[in-house]
Design goal:
The chain is an all-alpha fold and 142 residues long. The protein has 4 helices and no strands. Helix 1 packs antiparallel against helix 2 and helix 2 runs antiparallel to helix 3.
Length: 142
């Protein structure tokens, strides 16, 4: 596939998975495993040296995690001004009360959605790419 087709497919799949998860990117994190597998397979076909493979895998993983980061900023970033409004109703916002204080739970929820979720997707894709490369190199030596 051409790179622009791959970019369009990645953006569309990320948007669809975020919509299916209703703004909670659990499916995007799982999509990271597919991203890593495909990036490793593609890099092995296009590049002969390990350095070229690893850099392309990392770039593609960062790109897909960046799409998720931008999407989560669009979805959850609009709720950040609620932190500075003294009349905000954090108790009835609809997020889980992971901490005892509603305001702290809201802050934790925003950090989880905006920062940690794209990072987890990045780690899932890098892990999957590592396993794919390891298995591929093992099969080449035999």
């Amino acid at each position: 596939m051409r790179y622009w087709i791959l970019i369009v497919i990645s953006v569309l799949v990320t948007i669809i998975l975020s919509g299916i998860g209703m703004g909670v990117p659990i499916l995007n994190i799982l999509f990271g495993f597919i991203i890593g597998w495909y990036a490793a397979k593609r890099a092995c076909l296009l590049y002969g040296n390990l350095g070229g493979r690893l850099s392309k895998i990392f770039i593609y993983s960062i790109f897909c995690s960046g799409i998720t980061l931008v999407l989560m900023l669009c979805i959850w970033g609009r709720t950040i001004p609620m932190l500075f409004d003294p009349f905000s109703d954090f108790e009835n916002f609809g997020h889980p009360m992971i901490l005892f204080d509603p305001r702290l739970s809201f802050i934790g929820w925003l950090v989880l959605m905006i920062i940690i979720s794209p990072f987890l997707q990045l780690m899932a894709s890098i892990f999957s790419a590592f396993i794919t490369l390891k298995l591929r190199l093992k099969n080449l030596k035999i």
